[in-house]
Amino acid sequence: MMLLHYAATYCDSKVIAKNLDMRLAYVNLNNGRGYTPLHISAMRREPEVIVSLLTKDASTFETTGDGQCAVVYVED
């Protein structure tokens, strides 16, 4: 599992912030199913993580393998 995806899955905002600040990870990287860290944090409804990703230019337009953008998960 990719670093930011793992941190988003476990809602670890400190790990996300540190890696984004150090530019150690690509914020819009899709995993094997097409999910970005923003998709995962939106599914978890974790505001602190979502804001961290958005302030580092996470794209709300990236889509999963089935065509869903992260906004869909927040709207549910």
From TrEMBL:
UniProt KW RNA-binding keyword: no
Coiled-coil intervals, chain numbering: none
GO BP of this protein: defense response to bacterium; defense response to fungus; regulation of jasmonic acid mediated signaling pathway; regulation of salicylic acid mediated signaling pathway; systemic acquired resistance, salicylic acid mediated signaling pathway
This protein's GO CC annotations: nucleus
InterPro entries per record: Ankyrin_rpt, Ankyrin_rpt-contain_sf, NPR
ANK repeat intervals: 33-66
Keywords recorded for this protein, A-Z: ANK repeat
A Pfam family per the record: Ank
Entry protein name: Uncharacterized protein
Organism this protein belongs to: Dendrobium nobile
